[in-house]
Amino acid sequence: MLTLGQVLTLDDVERVRNGLARAPFRDGRATAGPTARKVKRNQQAVGADPEVEALSRFIRDALLRHPVFAAYARPVAWSRIIFSRYGPGDTYGLHTDDAQMAAEDGGRLRTDMSFTLFLSDPETYEGGALLLDGLDGEREHRPQAGDAVLYATGRLHRVTPVTAGERLAAVGWLQSLIRRDDQRELLFDLERVRAGLPDGEARLLLDKSVGGLLRQWGEI
Ligand code: NI
Description:
Shape: globular
Radius of gyration: 18 Å
Number of helices: 6
Number of strands: 17
Order of helices and strands: EHEHEEHHEEEEEEEEEEEEEHH
Structural class: alpha+beta
Bound molecules: nickel (II) ion
């Protein structure tokens, strides 16, 4: 799980929000599987509308320019981006996302990672936190507008009920060049060393990487 700071500037967020004001929103249950549909209550804009497609490209480009996203995620295929809107009473209960989805270019993708890009100032709505389930319980994410949370798609997660205001977000899924999380993390650590780090930090990441490779390749 990674928080990506300032994927969009506040001006970019405003531009996306203005575009979404012209986009058609529909009942979010249309894109949920049979289990998730029962706990999903929101509105969303997705698909063939030209405004939505232009905004989706804008967001994909912004993610690809983000240095942490580029070094970690290594996307080879993307789902369509869904713009979701939660008003008072809207929520998305605990669920997991599909393992395979339609790709935006028409093929299929394996969903390795999900992202939620927050488009609302957290001061302007109440509730609406993204909660990601881990072995030690749930962790809450409610970052600034323009920030994104990137996480392994297999995780259970939910969006708590919005009790006031409006929560806008862009969500999407991607297939990574590197299928396994541990291998992707190892390459990410080495990229950080290659990009230049203080000696102590570089040494720690190299120690971690050697340990990771020994665990992957070593036989006892
Ligand atoms: Ni989900």
